[in-house]
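ok trying this again, last paste got cut off
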Amino acid sequence: MKESTPRIKLYIACSLDGYIAREDGSIDWLTEYDNNPETDYGYSEFYASISTVLMGRKTYEQVLGFGDWPYAEKKTYVFTGQKEPLLREKNVEFVSGNVGEFTRQLKENTDKDIWLVGGSQLIRAFLEEDLVDDMIVFIVPIILGGGIPLFDRIGKEIKLKMTNTERYKSGLLRMEYNLKPT
């Protein structure tokens, strides 16, 4: 029997005006925060707490462009409505069925927390289905003026409970929210 139910966590960065990427999907504005010698913004601890990674097809294709697959030791599910992409990385499985049904079943059969990476369309689907338990959102001190929004037409009000905030010397602000009680 499981000790506790795994939680689905959105862990993501966005601009001050609420965008996770430029219109073309570029996240070049985040590169100055990569490999910070002072902190990894809690990423290592977060990454160790999860066993599964969930993302949409566009996000998957973008991550492939970064070079080595960063999630090789984690089970990754890529949600897509299109035919399977040509390149399949280690531990990657493509999912095209109902997001809610798949995720609820996954959660029942997983021991550790699950990371909802993105993108915007998948985040919307998860929020519409009440599948997100926690959010860790980093506000990057930049106004992009347009792009792919973090929250795109969710269509309902969602109340959040702030559980933690942290301000970094780099100007990043980490905000943690709980959507469902533990």
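PB: full thing came through this time. Helices lie at 43-48, 57-64, 99-108, 120-128.
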